[in-house]
Specification:
Layout lengths: L2 E2 L13 E3 L2 E5 L4 E2 L16 E8 L4 E6 L13 E7 L2 E8 L14 E6 L4 E7 L7 E8 L8 E5 L2 E8 L8 E7 L6 H8 L1 H8 L2 E5 L2 E2 L5 E2 L14 H15 L2 E11 L1 H12 L6 E5 L5 H6 L8 E6 L23 H11 L4 E6 L10 E8 L7 E7 L16 H13 L9 E2 L2 E4 L6 E6 L4 E7 L4 E5 L3 E3 L6 E9 L2 E9 L1
Parallel strand pairs: 1-3, 2-5, 14-15, 14-18, 18-19, 19-20, 20-23
Antiparallel strand pairs: 3-11, 4-5, 5-10, 6-9, 6-11, 7-8, 7-10, 12-13, 13-15, 16-17, 21-22, 22-23, 24-25, 25-26, 26-29, 27-28, 27-30, 30-31
């Protein structure tokens, strides 16, 4: 590898970038100052202290890949990449990546992003030090041929919409389908990478669809939930998602009864719209760091009532936990997160409430999780809130709070609703009793079913042990949350185990 250091050019600002072309480059130190209000192309919360700026201009239309996913970048290298176009006082994200994950070297902590360069246009390639300031290499690769697309096209209302579809190898017919929706200015590939929902699908046996929002006048992808600054947007995302769900169910032989939706921020807000307007298609929804606009509440008239789950940080200053009734943030007016949960609880006529602190297994993330559960409804639905005390605008498990894995928690909530077991006693489901729970050393599976086997997972979905015996030894396991999946002739039961 021949790498250019380019120490003679500062690269400390958009106005003074390092001009580059196709080739290999070495960053010794990221030292440019932070820029206020600069869009974050990776959708991850948190602003870096320093940025390193490069500019690229081509004399012909080309397909460009920028990557640090190189063998020359071993740990502790951990990169984050943003790519912009426009003037320095009005930059727009066109691509970005934090952790490559799938296909990434060294546990996926490196970055790669691609874009189509138009002849004569200047593009800004920006690396930040959010995770690491260690020196690393990167490549800029030019090609006349478009890369193989991750996306599949689906035509809806004369628009070519796109999505990423994944199903585990050997997936059984009539398996569940989970939609995972990105946030405002994000993209389907980003949330696919950081949510790691494909890994959860591999473990639990369901298909995943990552749909792609359309672009607004600012060049940002979004879901049309009625933001105050989107008065003229008319795209019907509810109908798009309903039709896409129906298409995928038929094309891939998936369950029409067990289709679910989760999403980050704007994607979470879309979940609330689906609960109001598409409840015959989606059986349950789980919003992460989303809110419910007052306009949506005022017009909400679901054909079916469905279970609703929200994961939200109390220190989220994008979608404010305590609400924004005056729309000071510009999104539109919305109530507090607890008020939103109470709205769904009252709609479902939940008459019981419980609250418990989940194990604070990671004491270094500055937060802990309180589970609030509204239950005993007429229809068996439950409404859950995971209040992440001290948490920000995050997808817990990927960044921010690390006590829980949002993707796994969302799926387990869906699985409970699918098995109609949300409102059954926490310890006794499908004739299986876990004693004791919480556990210190051993726990016992008591059942009137003789033939069963189990798999024990940690909170990240990693398989730990499997067997058929009734006594399970937890003595050498660290404190935290575990999940026990029990297979019997009556079906599959998932139990949450708390190790003290």
């Amino acid at each position: 590898m021949i790498a250019f250091n380019l120490f003679s050019q500062s690269g400390n600002s958009c106005e003074e970038p390092i001009e580059i072309s196709a080739g290999d480059y070495f960053i010794q130190n990221i030292s440019g100052a932070e820029v206020s209000n600069l869009p974050n192309c990776t959708e991850l919360n948190g602003s870096p202290e320093n940025l390193q700026w490069y500019s690229y201009t081509s004399d012909q239309d080309l397909y460009i890949t920028v990557t640090s996913n190189l063998e020359s970048n071993p740990p502790p290298d951990d990169t984050r990449l943003h790519i912009y176009e426009g003037s320095c006082d009005n930059l727009t994200c066109i691509a970005g990546n934090d952790d490559l994950d799938t296909g990434g070297l060294y546990d996926g902590f490196l970055s790669s992003a691609g874009f189509e360069a138009i002849a004569g246009n200047t593009y800004y390639i920006v690396w930040d030090n959010y995770w690491s300031n260690s020196s690393f290499y990167f490549q800029l690769i030019e090609s006349e041929d478009p890369p193989e697309s991750l996306y599949t096209t689906f035509t809806h209302e004369n628009l070519d919409r796109e999505y990423i579809y994944y199903e585990p190898e050997g997936l059984e017919a009539n398996s569940p389908l989970v939609f995972v929706m990105h946030g405002y200015s994000g993209d389907a590939e980003n949330i696919k990478n950081y949510s790691n929902m494909n890994d959860i699908a591999d473990e639990y046996g369901f298909a995943v669809c990552y749909p792609r929002g359309t672009e607004d006048d600012f060049g940002n992808r979004f879901w049309n939930v009625g933001y105050e600054f989107h008065p003229n947007e008319t795209v019907d995302d509810v109908d798009f998602l309903k039709e896409l769900a129906d298409y995928l169910q038929q094309t891939h032989n998936l369950s029409s009864e067990n289709t679910f939706a989760t999403g980050m921020s704007n994607g979470g807000e879309m979940c609330y719209m689906l609960a109001c307007q598409a409840s015959t298609t989606f059986k349950a929804v789980a919003s992460v760091a989303g809110m419910m606009l007052q306009d949506i509440i005022d017009t909400c008239n679901p054909e079916n009532l469905i279970p609703v789950f929200e994961i939200h940080g109390t220190s989220d200053f994008v979608n404010i936990y305590n609400g924004d009734p005056s729309s000071s943030g510009g999104w539109g007016a919305y109530p507090s997160i607890p008020e939103t949960i109470d709205y769904w609880s009252e709609l479902n006529n939940c008459i019981s409430f419980s609250s418990e602190n989940l194990p604070n297994s990671n004491t270094n993330d500055g937060s802990y999780v309180v589970k609030e559960r509204h239950y005993d409804s007429d229809n068996g639905n439950e409404i859950w809130l995971y209040k992440v005390v001290g948490g920000g605008h995050d997808w817990p498990g990927a960044y921010g709070n690390m006590d829980i894995n949002s993707s796994l928690e969302a799926w387990l909530f869906f699985e409970l609703s699918m098995n109609n077991s949300l409102s059954i006693n926490d310890n006794y489901v499908n004739q299986f009793l876990i004693i004791p729970n919480p556990v210190n050393d051993n726990f016992v599976i008591k059942s009137n079913t003789a033939n069963y086997n189990y798999v024990l997972y940690d909170s990240k979905g990693v398989k730990l042990i499997e067997g058929e015996e009734s006594v399970i030894n937890m003595l050498n396991k660290p404190s935290g949350t575990y999940f026990l999946k029990i297979y019997s002739q009556d079906g599959i039961t998932t139990k949450k185990i708390i190790k003290q």
